[in-house]
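>> received
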Amino acid sequence: MTVPASVDMVNILGPRDEFLRILERELDAGIHVRGNEINLTGSHAAVELAIDVITELVTVLRTGQGLTGDAVERIVAMLASREDARPADVLTHNILSSRGRTIRPKTLNQKRYVDAIDQHTVVFGIGPAGTGKTYLAVAKAVQALQAKQVNRIILTRPAVEAGEKLGFLPGTLNDKIDPYLRPLYDALHDMVDPDSIPRLLTAGTIEVAPLAYMRGRTLNDAFIILDEAQNTSMEQMKMFLTRLGFGSKIVVTGDITQVDLPNGTRSGLRVVQGVLDEVDDIDFCYLTNHDVVRHKLVGRIVAAYDRFEASQPVPAAPPRSTR
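>> returned
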């Protein structure tokens, strides 16, 4: 195949042929480059996939977006899975531009998650750590605020201990709660001018608070995110969802494999799909270890735990009392 002369081959092959080495490793086709000519050898299926991948690399570059090694690997993976969506449509979908960087989905499931947030009033994003559930939800919230679709952003989490007790932490109640809300502040700092965050918090335009602070309220014209929802009880989940007011949108995120609730307490996130699955204007989006966008090792760790847990015998049910 011939790469158009308008495309610099250095951008296709990568710095020091980094992208070429990725293609050689990930594709079964032989790749030989001479100028703008790429000669592909191998089975028909392997050559067809290689042509699709290189064509997609050219399409992404023509949008003005640069390529990275991670993007090249994701393009190969998406095309190899034979999904309907084109990788270029996923990787060039801009959510928010802030402080010299643009936030975009990096996988097809992330794109579906973002689209679901646009199309539904209540969306559940469920998946392992590092899949962008909270980060993309906060980006959509900031986008909605900037577009004046909502008047405020409300970010909340249950203050449930993961192996340590609140009472043992130093300081006032707010000091004790702050570590639980820190991941939400971190995401905000990536998307909003840090100097303006105190002003927005003081004005109530952005509110970051524990889930208990939501009780008894009706939240109108707001973009509301409940993070770490696997640590809500069934009663807390119902309480939170019924805070929904007019002109508002809710995104609930969580990982049902990391529940920190006391033994015997059922996770509201585990139960909620069975309750709301057939309710209109609610969508459930699932992300997997293939959607992890942190360090590559995180995806491998998640996959390893999934395999380990799948290999464990199912515990026997306790005997019923005969009394």
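>> The mean pLDDT is 85.
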